[in-house]
Prior knowledge:
- The chain contains six helices and seven strands, in the order H-E-E-H-E-H-E-H-E-H-E-E-H.
- It is an alpha/beta fold.
Amino acid sequence: MHFTIFDTPVIRDLFRCLSIALLKLSGWKLQGEFPRLDKYVMVGAPHTSNWDFPITLGLCFASRAKIYWMGKHTLFKGPMGPVMRWLGGVPVMRHQSNSLVQQMVEVFQRSEQLVLAIPPEGTRKSVNEWKTGFYHIAVGAGVPIALAYLDYGRKEGGFGPMFTPSGDIEADMPKIRAFYVDKQGRYPN
């Protein structure tokens, strides 16, 4: 993987202090600790607002956790490209013949350490069905899934149990979704 803001010594420490202060001032708190595993897919739900990204980054800085996230390859063009990579972005090309899942499985295989944050909705809009790419990436890479959340009702972000996918998506998805039943996004509807 590439060098990120989480790897930049002085800035990392400055952002940690700033994040702790801003989270405290805004009333946000972290419940639990980031899992101490080298590799896993971190499902982040519900995802309903652009605010989810800076709050998640703040919680990561405050906890000294390093995450990566996927973004459309167009976000990484021009002068913002290096900034997006520095923030932990991994460019993905959805229109290529090889699938997004396979691209991410290959990234996991090349990485000694990787926490990949994925919102299962795939968008900030209301959806009835989650996209299942996060599940297939975890199965293909042979890594567990961290059930992470932002709950705007309680102003907390945190983790549920680690989930080891069985490969039977029909049996596993209801169990994963059940964890999020009482979690409220910024825009619940």
